[in-house]
Each structure stands twice: as C-alpha cells, then as structure tokens.
Amino acid sequence: MAAAASNVENSTVMPGLEKELTFTRVFQAPRSLVFKVWTEPEHLAQWWGPHHFTNVVRKFDPHPGGAIHVDMRGPDGTVFPMGGEFREVVEPERLVFTTTAILDAEGNPQLENLNTVTLTEQDGKTTLTLHVKVIKATANTAFALSGMETGWSQSLERLTSLVSQKRGTGGLMRDPVTTALEDQTIVGSRIFDAPRELVFQMFTDPKHIVKWWGPRGFTDTVYAMDVRPGGAWRHVMRGPDGVEYINQSEYVEVVKPERLVFKHLSAPGHVTTITFEDRSGKTQVTMRMLFDSNEARDKVIETVGAVEGLKQTLNRLAEHMASM
After folding, report:
1. How far apart are CA 188 and CA 239, in angstroms?
2. DSSP 174
3. pLDDT category of residue 11 using cuts at 50, 70 and 90
C-alpha cells in the first residue's frame, strides 16, 4: 500500500460544534494483526460501531483515494449510512481517512470527520492512537456529536475483543462464513466438515432444519416440506420478540446431493439456490438469494439485516451438526 500526503481541510464547522478527540489503546498483539483487523472488510464488519450494531460493508478500499461505504444498522433496525475516503495508507503504521454521515434530502453529508490512526509496536504489543477531528458539522448534527465519544469508545472495545479473539486462535482467522453482494443477490458460503450427503439432509429433513434455520434467537415450525420440484415448504419462524413470520416456498429444482432451488412466495419474494460441493470429504455450501432488483435486495438488508441473518443461519447449522 502506498502513501499519499494528507489534504489540509477547510473547516465548515458551525460555531459551537467544534470537536477533537484522541483515543489510545494497547493491544496484546502485533501491529500487523491490528492493522489487518482494521482494514479488511470482513473483520471491520464485526467491530465497527457501538455495541449491538451490525454492518454491511459495501466499499472499504484501503488505499489513497479509496472509497468507504458502510451501512450501520442499530439495534432498533435503523440504518445509518456512512461514507468516506482514505487519504493516507502506510501499512502497518498509519491510516488517515474521512468519514461522513447524516445525509440531507439531496443525499449530501452534513457531518464529516478526519480520522488519523497510528500504530506502534514494542515487545509484541501494539499501541493504537486515534485522533478524530470534526471538519464539517451543521446544526442538525449536534445529537450525533454528543454521542461521538461513546460511539468510538465502544467501537474500540469491540475492536479489542476481536483482536484478542484472533490472536487467541494463533493468527488471523477469517470468519468461516463469507458473504458478498452481487447484482440483485445476497451470497453466503461456508465449508462444513461433513460429506455432502449428510449436509444435504440437514436442508431437506424437517426434524433437522427446525434446529438451525434462521438467525440466532429464532425458532421454526414446519407444516409442510415436500422436497421435489413443485413441492411446497411451509413454515413459521418466530423471532426472539415473539413476532411470527409466515414463509411459503415452492421447490423448483432438487438434485440430491448437489443442488436445491426454491422460490420464496411470501414477501419479500426471491429465489434461493443452494449448491453443495465436495471439498475432499468436506462440503462447501453456497446460498444465493436472488431478488427482483437491487432495491428489493437492499430493503431486506436494511430492514431485517439479511446479510447478518444468512451468516448466523449457516453458523447455527455448523453448531447443530457439531452437536449431533
């Protein structure tokens, strides 16, 4: 990664909203690990934002001029889009980047910060210093500025926890579930330490699927599961808040143990394709949820956290199989 000189910002901060913060944290880990957990999107998604926030990282390109776009989803379901741009990247020593938030009716950001991260290492430990300076703030950003210190403190707590977890595994362990966004599609994939005939059964046997289908905290009741082309799958998912979600689907393709395709007839409508690939005795499962449009896909991401839900579902399947 190359470095570029940081631009001098022209302040457009409304009087009374000026703010600068500095945070320091010491990690029991080499700075190369801390740098990677900060700059690799799959890791950033796990710690960015205050406690109980989840993230969809749409763009996070750590090189000078690289774009940032993260959709932060609060515990009440509200989505807070965050943009920005990298100004300097010196691996593994320094990051300078802007972050923007709070869009007006025309989509223009009303709040912008300049963030500088420095990493120094001594005796296997890493000291991280984060300096945050508000470089743009309008009258309607006061509420966000009042919570900025708490938000960053909680983000750094989550970062510390994640770095400790990764270091405890003996190195940088990627999340076992990989997720991605393609045109109109949400994709999730995970490798299971089991033959594909067994993994295929987990998706087609009601007594198994009720043990793991859905995000954490959900339960499932299956009323019909006729796994053949034209066959119906009817089930009700109950969230941790007691809300019930009626699901009705129709199988389109069933190729045992290679492929399942079903059409989700209940809203939001989509087609799910599940493939089962042999990986030297293990099985790679890939799920693709195809929606009618990018807008329809983005709506389920923003309203129900579909990306995180898919990840949690595949992780629950792994836990169920491990308990058998």
Report:
1. 21
2. P
3. low
